[in-house]
Amino acid sequence: MSGIGASIANLTFSPPAGTYTGTQNVTLASSTAGVFIKYTIDGSDPSFINGTLYTGPIGVSSTRTVKAKAFKSGLTDSPVAAASYTIIVSNVDYAIQSPVFPTNGIASGAINGSFTVQNIGSQNGAQTITWTLTGSWSEIPIATGTLSPLNSSATSGTVNFSGNWPATPGVYSLTLNITASDEPGGEGNIASSGNVPVSTPDYIITIPTASYNVGSGNIEGSFQIQNQSTYNGAADVTYTVGVNDSTIIASGTLAGGLTGGSSSSIINFSTSQASGVHSISISISASDDGDATNNSWTSGIINVL
Question: What pTM was computed for the model?
Answer without folding.
Answer: 0.53
